[in-house]
From TrEMBL:
Toroid-shaped homodecamer, composed of two pentamers of five dimers. This is GTP cyclohydrolase 1. GO terms for cellular component: cytoplasm. The keyword Hydrolase applies. Signal peptide: none annotated. GO terms for biological process: pigment biosynthetic process; tetrahydrobiopterin biosynthetic process; tetrahydrofolate biosynthetic process. It is an enzyme of class 3 (hydrolase). It comes from Polypedilum vanderplanki. Residues 34-207 form the GTP cyclohydrolase I domain. The keyword Metal-binding does not apply. Residues 1-23 are annotated as: Disordered.
Length: 209
């Protein structure tokens, strides 16, 4: 973070655009924005049912984007164990909810993660926690897939990593082109998963089963 900053509505804005968030100040600022949005869709933000909606919506958005404030090392919390296991480990169908950075509407689906250990294994829940860190942000599916792969690769230094993501994008389902049943599939293969056809095939077969 740069040394020079100004305080705007309780949040520090650095000269390079970085923002140090003060949660209370952000909540208030965001709630004010939602109040304006309500007015602009033709609503009365003062009617009873909407009185607390701006604060609720602000809290919800902070929850949907909580991944910005999480660090992979904190999430893994040291749960890397030495183990002489050299077969593929797969955790599949990890549900995620994310938000499309183009329209700020949800996209959601499942992530399957596989890796080939190099004498180190990761606590299983940590794979799902890594998915949370990168999905709880404004995203595009391709970048989220890559970031998950890189995080697993960096944490474990395995012989290879494979990630498959299948998702429905509300920006394509409920608006725009309105293709209700469309699914987007993305994958990233690292190390043996990229270079060894057999490893790759085994991963895709097991992830599909
Ligand atoms: N590659 C990729 N595209 C995405 C993702 N999420 C949303 N998009 C696309 O982002 C594009 C934005 O296109 P624009 O033409 O700028 O916006 P738009 O007029 O709202 O587009 P339409 O959705 O076609 O109505 C759309 O094609 C979306 O489907 C994603 O995760 N990955």
């Amino acid at each position: 973070m740069s040394e020079k900053y100004q305080v705007v509505n309780g949040n520090k804005i650095h000269e390079n655009g970085d923002r140090e968030q003060n949660d209370d100040a952000s909540l208030k600022e965001m709630a004010d924005c939602y109040r304006l949005i309500l007015q602009n869709v033709g609503e009365n933000p003062k009617r009873e049912g909407l009185l607390k909606t701006p604060e609720r919506a602000a809290k919800a958005l902070l929850f949907f984007t909580k991944g910005y404030h999480q660090k992979i090392s904190d999430v893994i919390n040291g749960a890397i164990f030495t183990e002489n296991h050299d077969e593929m480990v797969i955790v599949k169908d990890i549900e995620f909810f994310s938000m499309c950075e183009h329209h700020l509407v949800p996209f959601f689906g499942k992530v399957s993660i596989g890796y080939l250990p190099n004498n180190k294994i990761l606590g299983l829940s940590k794979l799902a926690r890594i998915v949370e860190v990168f999905s709880r942000r404004l995203q595009v599916q391709e970048r989220m897939t890559k970031e998950i792969a890189e995080a697993v690769d960096e944490a474990l230094k395995p012989l290879g990593v494979g990630i498959i993501v299948s998702a429905s994008h509300m920006c394509m389902v409920s608006r725009g082109v309105q293709k209700i049943n469309s699914k987007t599939l993305t994958s990233v293969m690292v190390g043996e998963f990229r270079t060894n056809q057999k490893t790759r095939d085994e991963f895709f077969r097991l992830a599909r089963s």
